[in-house]
Design brief:
Length: about 300
């Protein structure tokens, strides 16, 4: 985890616990492998902010269908995560920190080469969060992160990402930043459920926790961190459990056309925003939810 993010997410958990893209390798997987059931095209020109924990709409997934996402990498554990995904012919989405991409470009290139989507998670994963920075400074950090990931993954720095997906560190967005990303046709992703893997726990405890949440939700965008030892250790068992329980993996990629969207239920409320506001308090004046404006 990066700086405040561990403290941040511990607090969240305490409140919530009740170049052209390279082709994927031609690895052969038998019927026993989990694989990818379908690919979902996400069109950033639709000004999307998705994930029911933060926004009032999400991807229209089928029952027992999941999208796997990993934040905060690359790290020394990312290779283990990639190995586990490759063993099951599963593709995921990595929201990459630019500073760490600069330090481990080979891992970014490997993720792209193996068919994963590599999105963006700011340059510095700032301890003060993007919400507490000036708008200009936050935009600069986001752009620097995009350029770093593009340089590491594709060999040329650019502010126009190959994979125009972004997730806010700590989920701490602002309406202005969401709108700015939307105008650039960059889709913003929250999540539908998480593994709480920022908490210290055994791999077995994490496995049981995320499976229990998934059984309750029955589908969703799932958030892990490829920086966490428990996640790297439990991931092979988690992927096998998905197969055994009849779950299917959907892989999100950039593409034109109508993105399948499911609106939240009428009584929807953000589960992340009250925690963010409690942590930030009066330090974030005027940071009303983008979700309340239909994003």
């Amino acid at each position: 985890m990066n700086g405040l993010s561990q403290t941040w997410l511990l607090a969240v958990a305490a409140n919530l616990l009740p170049a052209p893209c390279l082709a994927a390798p031609s690895q052969k997987c038998g019927v026993e492998a989990l694989g990818v059931a379908r690919t979902i095209m996400v069109d950033g020109s639709e000004k999307l902010a998705l994930g029911l924990q933060s926004y009032p709409r999400t991807l229209a997934l089928e029952d027992h269908e999941v999208v796997l996402t990993f934040d905060d990498g690359p790290s020394p554990l990312t290779a283990r995560v990639l190995d586990a995904l490759a063993a099951q012919c599963v593709r995921a989405t990595f929201f990459v920190v630019g500073r760490d991409a600069e330090s481990a470009p080979a891992l970014v290139r490997r993720a792209i080469a193996e068919g994963h989507s590599v999105g963006h998670h700011s340059y510095s994963h700032p301890e003060r969060t993007l919400r507490l920075m000036s708008e200009a400074a936050a935009k600069a950090d986001i752009d620097k992160g995009i350029a770093a990931v593009e340089q590491s993954g594709y060999g040329a720095a650019s502010h126009t990402p190959h994979t125009p997906f972004f997730r806010f560190p700590g989920f701490a967005d602002t309406p202005a930043l969401v709108a700015w990303l939307s105008e650039r046709k960059i889709a913003v992703f929250g999540s539908d459920l998480w593994a709480s893997d920022w908490l210290e726990m055994t791999p077995q405890a994490e496995l049981e926790l995320v499976l229990s949440r998934l059984e309750a939700a029955r589908k969703g965008i799932v958030l892990f961190h490829d920086t966490r030892p428990s996640t790297a250790a439990m991931l092979p068992d988690f992927l096998r459990a998905l197969k055994e329980r009849g779950y299917r993996v959907a892989h999100i990629v950039p593409g034109a056309g109508l993105t399948p969207i499911q609106p939240a239920k009428p009584d929807w409320k953000s589960t992340t925003e009250p925690i963010i506001e409690k942590i930030l308090g009066a330090r974030a004046p005027g940071a009303a939810r983008a979700g309340k404006k239909g994003m």
